[in-house]
């Protein structure tokens, strides 16, 4: 049996037109734009959160370091001879290491 050269009417109705494809492309562009914006917003929010955590951690470390400096100053004032001996020993070690 030979097939007719006449296109089937149901096939023509389901074939997307250029206009339909253009609309779909525009919808995809809009969706991609929204997704890009959402991802950017999430990235900025996460960046702010990480920055805040880093600042909190830096403040904590700074406070601990200042506390240790205060402890060392008190120790040096209470034990000046010992502190001087420790400093001399450290200086000697650094000098020996620098020679090599």
From TrEMBL:
Record bears the keyword Cell cycle: no
UniProt domain DUF883: residue ranges: 73-97
Cited Pfam families: DUF883_C
Membrane-traversing stretches: 78-97
Database matches in InterPro entries: DUF883_C (IPR043605), YqjD/ElaB (IPR010279)
Listed GO MF terms: ribosome binding
Keywords: Membrane, Transmembrane, Transmembrane helix
Protein name: ElaB/YqjD/DUF883 family membrane-anchored ribosome-binding protein
């Amino acid at each position: 049996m030979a097939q007719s050269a006449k296109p089937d009417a149901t096939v023509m109705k389901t074939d997307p037109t250029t206009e339909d494809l253009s609309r779909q492309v525009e919808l995809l562009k809009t969706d991609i734009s929204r997704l890009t914006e959402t991802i950017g917003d999430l990235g900025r929010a996460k960046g702010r959160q990480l920055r805040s955590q880093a600042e909190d951690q830096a403040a904590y470390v700074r406070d601990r370091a200042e506390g240790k400096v205060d402890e060392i100053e008190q120790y040096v004032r209470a034990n000046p001879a010992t502190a001087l001996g420790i400093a001399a020993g450290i200086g000697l070690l650094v000098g020996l290491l620098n020679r090599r």
